[in-house]
Amino acid sequence: FSGASGANLGILSYSLGLIDGLDPSLLRHALSTHKKLAEELGHSIKVSEIVVPLTQAKAIIRELTRGIAAVFRAKYGFKRVEKLGLSLVVDDTLLIDPLEYRDSLVRKIGELGVDVIENNGVEKLVGRGSKITEAILSNGSVIESDIYVLAAGPWSDEILRPLGIELGVVSLKGYTILARVDENIDRVIGVDPVFMRPHQHRDDIVMIGGYKKPSGLDLEIDEKDIETMLDTAVKVGVKPLEVLEVRVGLRPCLEEPVTRIIKYDNLIISTGHCRHGMLLAPQAADEIVRLARSM
After folding, report:
1. Mind listing the pLDDT tens digit for each residue in 246-288?
2. CA dist 280 → 33, 175, 205, 247 (Å)
3. Closest by alpha carbon to 61, among 20, 13, 96?
């Protein structure tokens, strides 16, 4: 959940921007899973609206006319879907900060007896014959396991290349800006490639995010990108008084996301979900479990 989009848009608003061509059952599974897990971890879920220019809403409208709106209304109590001027407004949006969500997940995983090793990346995977035999971490320590799951996002190819595997993952850079405002918004506002939403806990802070572009593995903050995002916010009536924090993340993109066994019998690779990452996480997790049990 290190990408900028998830932190900025929240669960349901994030999903609505991606529904073109996606199976309604997949969306329903993802949303219900995140909602249930968030509630179990003690997160409050805000209600808001999504407002996007109609030109960007064509894909959403197309999917709504194919029955997805009925699914969302039935599952999440949508009150209405209607055009307002040049905007599409959808009520009852689930919002959550994935950085807080991630911290809660780490605590929950620890309670289940799993060791979470942080700030110590995978330097290389060692393969012999048809099996991966060990993972060597940045500090030189070695982890041996029966099954290996690689979900390294933009860094997947860097780790896999020495094993003769090249997926062609393209990294897109995204930002989330936390800015203090004198008058906050009460809804999600999207003007491609920028989205704005109210902060999860603070009425005087707005979250501004987006701005995707190919970047390799570069995590440097480009001041011109930040200026563009702030200028876009001002154009739609959001007036930042002070930038409090800038987060930067990379989205790993493939034309077709991967969650499968590749080359080695005990190596499951899951990556390339791009802006679908948070949405498809439950589906990818189910597939990883299925593959692991089949080994």
Report:
1. 988 888 988 888 999 999 999 999 999 887 777 678 888 889 9
2. 11, 20, 28, 22
3. 20
